[in-house]
Amino acid sequence: MWFIGWKGPSGFSASSTAQQVTHGIDGTSLTAIITGASSGLGLETTRILAFRGVHVVMAVRNVKNCIDIKESILKEIPAAKIDVFELDLSSLASVRKFAADFNSSGLPLNILINNAGLMATPFMLSQDNIELQFATNHLGHFLLTNLLLETMKKTVRECNQEGRIVIVSSEAHRFAYSEGIRFDKINNESEYSSYFAYGQSKLANILHANELSRRLKEEGVQITVNSLHPGTIVTNILRHHGYFNAVANMVGKYFLKNVQQGAATQCYLALHPQVKGISGEYFTDSNKASPTSLAKDTKLAQKLWELSVSLSNTK
User: Does the keyword section mention Magnesium (predicted)?
Assistant: First the structure.
């Protein structure tokens, strides 16, 4: 269990915090985009990367609210470099606008952290008529990553420094539908399970990371892509399940990770020199872990890529 704190090969454990896993790392030459940066793991990741000198772009749905959050970070870290851009991952139009705005800003891009997510929502469709968890957790991030890749490649060439893409998945990928991805039933409301659909979207996150990693390796591009399970944490992700949310908040502090511990693995993958050159892996507790056989299925990953291209109307 996390509170026992067994250290893995990295020297870190489930009890390590984001501040601990980034100790002594200077990120002043780096620029990062973090989705879902205004709360929970995204906010803590923003705070830690800014503390380490990284120029952070907070990609959030509510810019007005996030301005206040930005100001609170600046009070704590006066030297922090933070920008706020609007991004609604459930809208492909919003993803395209965000990418266009960022790409035209002239900013470099060293790190992309696909952190935002929804968990176990009732059946709903996105603005593009795609099941909401799949649309938000996977498809929006898929399109965002593709649209930002050229800027990241340009940054790598100009800085001669490895780029990193970090995709937040979950151990819930082990509890997807039995076939993994329901390619022909993404929008099937009659057979919808909020928890299996969440697992499907988290499985998609790992498959996306693996397939993108494979493609970048084939191109010889110096960009790594890894996925991760942050741990079981009390955040607002359970807001659609009042009873479970209440219980989690009551007992979570005794049995679950706190946000500082939950953000550790994504901060580790974003900044730590131990991860240099490592790509296409799945991590938990700042150490390599083994996902399910479905998550390692290259044919499934390629099929998901083709579906994602089709649904997002991108190349």
Answer: no
3-state secondary structure of 50: helix
> Which pLDDT belongs to residue 255?
57
- 192, 195, 198, 268: the catalytic one is 192
Contact 169/282 with Cβ under 8 angstroms?
A: yes
**CA–CA distance, 53 with 85 (Å, rounded to integer):** 19
Looking at the chain, the number of H-run helices and the number of E-run strands are: 11, 8
CATH 3.40.50.720 correct for 20-254+261-313: yes
pLDDT in tens, 198-219: 999 999 999 999 999 999 999 9
SS3 259: helix
| Residue extents of the structural domains in the chain | 20-254+261-313
Q: Alpha-carbon distance 84 to 107, whole Å? A: 13
Q: Report pLDDT digits (tens) over 220-245.
A: 999 999 999 999 886 555 554 454 44
Which tokens is 199 given? 């697992």
The token duo for 47 is 């705070």
**CA-CA distance, 225 to 141, in Å (whole number)?**
13
Q: Which helix (DSSP H) or strand (DSSP E) does residue 299 occupy?
A: helix 298-312
Q: Which helix (H) or strand (E) holds 228?
A: strand 223-229
Type of residue numbered 266: Q
Q: Confirm if 205 and 144 have CB atoms less than 8 A apart.
A: no
Q: For residues 271 and 177, what is the distance between their CA atoms, to the nearest angstrom?
A: 34
Annotated catalytic, 177? no
- 161 CB burial (10 A radius; 0-12, 13-18, 19+): middle
